[in-house]
Amino acid sequence: AYAAGEAPILKFGTGITAASLTVTTTPSGNSLIITDGIEGDQIVLDYSLLNSNYGVKKVQFSDGSSLAFEDLVTMKDQLLEIKNSTGTFGNDTL
After folding, report:
1. What angle do CA 27, 22, 11 make, to 5 degrees?
2. Distance (Å, rounded) from C-alpha 73 to C-alpha 9?
3. Residues 18, 61: contact at Cβ < 8 Å?
4. 94 Cβ contact partners less than 8 Å away, ≥ 6 residues apart
5. Which residue range forms the structural domain that includes residue 55?
6. Per-residue pLDDT of the chain (94 residues; tens, 9 = 90+)
7. Which terminus in the chain has less CB density within 10 A, N or C?
8. Stated pTM of the model
């Protein structure tokens, strides 16, 4: 956790871009998991979805671009929408 007024930043090195990130949640739904497309690489932002004093305020890339925490949550929500597709009897296009 961090104190009020602090704005922790997670900085990624060369070769990692916003497009290479995937954002999901832990099974409990309390924490964000960020993966960068490289097998075995992941960062867990513990309890970041429960309390605004956990996690980071933004992630920054080596080219200077960044994503706010809210952007990471949006990425997670978009992925969950894709994963939660439901089919019906007969042929479906998902």
Report:
1. 105
2. 15
3. yes
4. 85, 87
5. 9-77
6. 566 677 899 999 999 999 999 999 998 989 999 999 888 899 999 999 998 888 899 999 999 999 999 999 999 887 665 555 566 776 766 5
7. C
8. 0.76
